[in-house]
Amino acid sequence: MMDEVRLSRRAMLAAGLGGAAAAAVPGEAAQGGEGGTRAGGPSLAPRPPMGWNSWNSFATTITEAQARETAAIMREKLLPHGYDVFTVDIQWYEPNATSYEYNKVATPTLDPHGRVIPAPNRFPSSADGSGFTQLAAAVHAMGMRFGIHVMRGIPREAVKRNLPVLGTSLRAADVADTSSTCPWNPDMYGVDMSKPGAQAYYDSIFALYASWGVDFVKMDDMSRPYDSHAPEIEAAHRAIQRCGRPIVLSLSPGETPVPRGAHVREYAQMWRISDDFWDEWAMLEAQFTRLENWNQWRRPGAWPDADMLPLGRLALGKRDTKFTPDEQRTLMTLWSIARSPLIMGGDLRHLDAPTLALLTNREVLAVNQASTDNRPHFIADGTRIWSARPEGSRDHYVALFNTSDKAKEVALPLRALDVTGAVRVRDLWAGRDDGTASGRLARPIASHGAGLYRLSAA
Fold it and tell me: Quick one: which of 117, 343, 419, 457 is 20 to 30 A from 254 by CA?
């Protein structure tokens, strides 16, 4: 079944795609193929991960039935284009989760060692104690990787009950830091990494996730305040190295401090550069500066994360994205040229044709997955411009953005690319050739809009 739904890595790259699907498809990592088996370094995420996450559309409420239905749609609609990481977001262990708000007193489902496990009333296949094993296997059978969201630390309920830490003679209260709490979620205490048994606790939870078949962990309440949480970031990294399974570590939320770039890219494959990103123009405009600031720290295996794509149907089905069509194109263009991970957040059960087309333009996705030398250019107020190079080519990619409130021409002198003479221009969003340019690339761009072009020697 898996071979029927996935493209080979070679075929994807030939089509202009890299993607996590092309780099490490379930079943290949253990064979020592491309992507490798070691639990660290660029082999875990050689290209920006692509996938879907339940938060924007389901909040805390997703069930197993909804997950399986959504994964099947993802397999059909998005996997052929490289989106292969299917992630169940926050509070899958909370039987009474109902919305974007958190219950003041958490009631997580725990195993005897104080580790959260899926709530059986929401994930019936976990009722036998196997956790996410069956759901992960179903996602793997579709040719995709399985991800989960977890909170930093140890459950407060585990500390209240003082449950034992697996593999030690210690208890939850022995490793918890009860002064370290998340300001917006009531589920956890921090773990005091100076205490005996602290690393053993983190080792135990990642060993559990590995036994379920988890491939991707979004770990929340990690990046702010960064220095206070750095010991637990390092602990999660060590636990992944010891768990025996390649697991991508994604840190959330931001704003991760740029001066900690060297540390964060050593211990995680993705990290959020902002707090939660939603469909507001002011939020999108602010991401330009953040991505510009983080550009120096991006490398294969380490990706500054501008957050999920709030496109299509959102917020428990209550509304569609507030981004205009031009703003949606700006969002996808910026995430692509800056090589942010592409994680769709909208409800795939209501995926409309324009949103699907936006997500699956192969020439645009190739910019995200297979470009180098990505960098911003600072030309004029009300504009943003980025350029990059296609892998293995002398061509150039150029993204022109109009962040002002009126349509206008946006232009880049070709000398900024060290280009002399005329170039052929291809409009990647339109999928057609768009004449030539000499001396400067100039195009009319709608307010809050973007254009994305490939320049080739004439």
Answer: 117
Give the residue among 20, 80, 89 at the shortest CA–CA distance from 49. Answer: 20
pLDDT value for 1? 37
Residues 63, 70: Cα–Cα separation, whole Å:
10
- The H or E element spanning position 293 is helix 281-294
228 by DSSP, 3-state: which? helix
pLDDT band, residue 37 (cuts 50/70/90): very low
Q: List Cβ neighbours of 414 (8 Å cut-off, separation of 6 or more).
A: 420, 423, 437, 438, 439, 440, 441, 455
H or E element at residue 440: strand 440-445
Residue 304's nearest CA partner among 373, 254, 232 is 254
**C-alpha closest to that of 411 among 447, 444, 387, 376:** 444
In Å, how far from its chain's centre is CA 443? 31
d(CA 321, CA 279): 6
pLDDT surpasses 80 at 352: yes
Q: Using 50, 70 and 90 to split pLDDT, how confident is the model at 106?
A: confident
- Nearest of 380, 436, 432, 440 to residue 408 by alpha carbon: 380
